[in-house]
Automatic annotation (TrEMBL):
Location of the ABC transporter domain: 10-239
Organism: Methylocystis heyeri
Pfam assignment, any one: ABC_tran
Leader sequence residues: none
InterPro entries: AAA+_ATPase, ABC_transporter-like_ATP-bd, ABC_transporter-like_CS, ABC_transporter_ATP-binding, P-loop_NTPase
Family, as annotated: Belongs to the ABC transporter superfamily.
Protein name: ATP-binding cassette domain-containing protein
Lineage: Bacteria, Pseudomonadati, Pseudomonadota, Alphaproteobacteria, Hyphomicrobiales
SUPFAM superfamilies assigned to the protein according to its UniProt record, in alphabetical order: P-loop containing nucleoside triphosphate hydrolases
Alphabetical keyword list: ATP-binding, Nucleotide-binding, Transport
MF GO annotations: ATP binding; ATP hydrolysis activity
């Protein structure tokens, strides 16, 4: 049952997926409207599998996923209309120029062509791709492709933006630009959930940080709350994170 007045950007309950072993193991996770949420965890913790289930790329074994009150399992198209997914290996059409790509993606979402063109130019400008707007994407660098994928994900003005490792392979200038665009989106009321291994990004950008291990959320909160939880005093996020994961492994 959809409840589109829900203030929760993302509500995951009892989510589970097993491959050879459980990858996501009864996960409960909530992202508030207007919140920047960062998901941390060691390799294999189940972060990407979680996001792939949220975006409909992987079917869960059990559990529920609601996006602003839209049941993402019962109404995947309704859910996709209000979210964006940026994977760590974006698929682009090499023969398209950025403007053609954005026009194509906007068309899939039924965005009015005039509106789409304005948005496309704004996004390319914000992301520093305006000088390449009419060049074919084929020879683009990884960073340029990553930024164009982000533009493509934002062209239908989603309310929830989901990113898997968006800063991997970006140089300092590109990282800054992507951070600025995401911050601006959150200022405008969007919600973001993002995985990263770059703890400094989580520390600087996240309203709340969730730490996953073995398919479950083992800790969640603001950095000061996580420090308290880890008994880590004024330790860095890296120390706090490593302490939390070690505590979980010791308890397992
Ligand atoms: N399609 C798949 N088939 C089999 N096993 C899979 C598949 N996808 C993920 N897994 C397994 O599920 C577990 C969780 O993987 P996942 O990619 O979700 O972790 P992650 O936290 O994103 O890790 P990383 O930080 O390394 O990206 C791992 O053990 C992984 O090998």
């Amino acid at each position: 049952m959809n409840d589109i007045s829900s203030p929760l950007a993302l509500k995951i309950r009892g989510l589970a997926k097993t491959f050879e072993r459980p990858a996501v193991d009864g996960l409960d996770l909530t992202v508030l409207g207007g919140e920047f949420y960062t998901l941390l965890g060691p390799n294999g913790a189940g972060k990407t599998t979680t996001l792939r289930m949220v975006t409909g790329l992987q079917a869960p074994d059990r559990g529920s996923i609601s996006i602003f009150g839209v049941d993402a399992l019962a109404d995947p198209i309704g859910a996709k209309r209000i979210m964006a997914w940026v994977s760590d290996e974006p698929m682009l059409y090499d023969q398209f120029t950025p403007m053609e790509y954005l026009d194509f993606v906007a068309g899939l979402w039924g965005v009015d062509p005039g509106v789409a063109e304005t948005r496309a130019r704004e996004l390319l400008s914000c992301l520093g791709l305006a000088p390449h707007a009419d060049e074919r994407c084929g020879p683009f660098s990884k960073g340029m492709r990553q930024k164009l994928a982000l533009a493509g994900a934002l062209v239908h003005e989603p309310r929830l933006i989901i990113l898997d490792e968006p800063f991997t392979g970006l140089d300092a200038a590109s990282s800054r630009v992507v951070k600025d665009v995401l911050r601006e989106k959150v200022r405008a009321g969007c919600s973001v959930i993002m995985t990263t291994h770059i703890l400094e990004v989580a520390e600087r950008m996240a309203d709340r940080i969730g730490v996953m291990a073995s398919g479950r959320l083992i800790a969640e909160g603001r950095l000061d709350e996580l420090r308290l939880r880890a008994g880590a005093g004024d330790a860095s996020l890296e120390d706090t994170f490593l302490t939390l994961v070690a505590q979980e492994q010791a308890a397992a």
